[in-house]
Amino acid sequence: MPVLIQVRDGHKRFGDQVLLEGAELSLVDDVKVGFIGRNGAGKSTLLQALLGNEELEKGEVIHHPSLRIGYLRQHDPFKPDESALDFLMRDSGQPDWRCGEVAGQFELKGDYLEGPVKALSGGWQTRVKLAALLLHDPNLLMLDEPTNFLDLRTQILLEHFLRGFNKAALIVSHDRAFLKATCSQTLELSRGKLTMYPGKIDAFLEYREERREHDRRVNATTIAKQKQLQRFIEKNRANAATASQARSKAKQLARLQTSEIEVDEPTVCIRAPRVQPRQGTVARCEGLAIGYPGNVVAKNINLEIEHGQRAAIVGDNGQGKTTLLRTLVDSLAPIEGTIKWGYGTELGTYAQHVYTSLDERQTVLEHLEYASDQQTTRQDCLAMAGALLFRDSHIQKKVKVLSGGERARLCMAGLLLGTANVLVLDEPGNHLDVETVEALAEALVEYKGTVIFTSHDRHFMRRVATNVIEVRNGTVKNYFGDYDSYLESVESEIDEGERQRNLTAGKSADSKPGKPPEDKITAVDYRQNQRDQRKTEKEIKNLEKKIARLDDEKRQLNESLLTETNPDAALKLHEQLTQITQELQDAEERWLELSEF
Q: Where is this region: Disordered (predicted)?
């Protein structure tokens, strides 16, 4: 298993901030690694160093001679009036049939493949860039926040692509669900140190918290022992008979050291507005049509949202999710129909058109104090600012010098400190890291008001949503099922689309101009491989669910065994624990076998 790329003793600073300090990293040829860390920790800087676009102050980056990096470009590589097919042929030097075959894996066909690529949405353009990557046959993919602004369907297609990609990948993302679905290992950058964990992100986050809790307990014991020794020394050092004992205790005290607990800045202080719970209907849409002059996006909308619901707006990009949210908050006039809000409703909005209109004369702290409710103290403002990455001198920065991402976080902080009893949020997780997204989700779950939101982060949606509203094919309606059932329906549609596409590709394989005749056999093999791959992926998914269930059962049995005093009951628990442990071991071995396959 060759090492494709290696970092030895990497050091890098940006001003006073330490990004890398003695960093060590090895990426091998068939492992997909999820790369996480707080915003500003230096993840993008490390990626640029790996690519050779950024120099380390000390240390070295070593590339294997066979290394072929595929980097997902964030900039626009397309020429005016160029089609996706033209771009793929120009970028890769491959023939049209090969470019079309790879593009088909991302559902790029018809006008999406042959029309102007610049006319496509950001999500479809990302599909074109991914197809271009695959055509270059890389053995290491580097993806920096690949799911940003991708709709659910495109994210799932990207997951399918990555699971079928049998080479290495390094993926920076704040989307826990995406990392869990695609990466078998987790890399964290924190305070200049790189930590590689041989497991998925959920297991890593749990392990990290257990490690920190262990360090806290050890430190508490150490501090208690230090106090005990200090009291003995102070009491006995002046006494000639016990002075030697006091000196011995002093040496023991000098050896006792507490561990430094590497905890990132706390995000637990994130809270939602403090409001009183209410009942009944908070919003009613009747005969509503939404869109823009000359372009009706959706019509005949009859919808009710109840107080206390956390309604997730779902649908593919371009279907009208943001248009619906903008119409609800009256930043876009309805084409026809009415929207009625309940009595006493106070709306709080998080969307791009809001955070670009902040008062540029205010500082960060002044905006938060202005936006917060009367019960909010300055300490509350500082805590919220710190949770959303405004710390130390940053709280005195003027709004006019903030970046777009900083303005977005400031708007979110002000909103959460306010008094709104209805929050309308468009992509609230953008510009936030994994820990902050999790803390925001927890705050919204505890919130007593109503939330209407859209997000591309499936973990966030699953944590927060109580009901689902689907925007699709010019209509908006309540989806009768939870978010997991909606996910399953989209997965099924994509699986069926892939099956049909593979069948079509097989039938027409020998009719494509310029394609070698032996590719007909390759197409048959490809379809069979795809079917085997889907079968394997399904078994892996079921195994992951089984492993999670068995792991929970094992943990509960261990806890029960520690407190059980009845010998017979303890023996029964031990037998159950042995059986569960064996089942878990068998499932994990099968998972490893399939993952290698």
A: 494-536
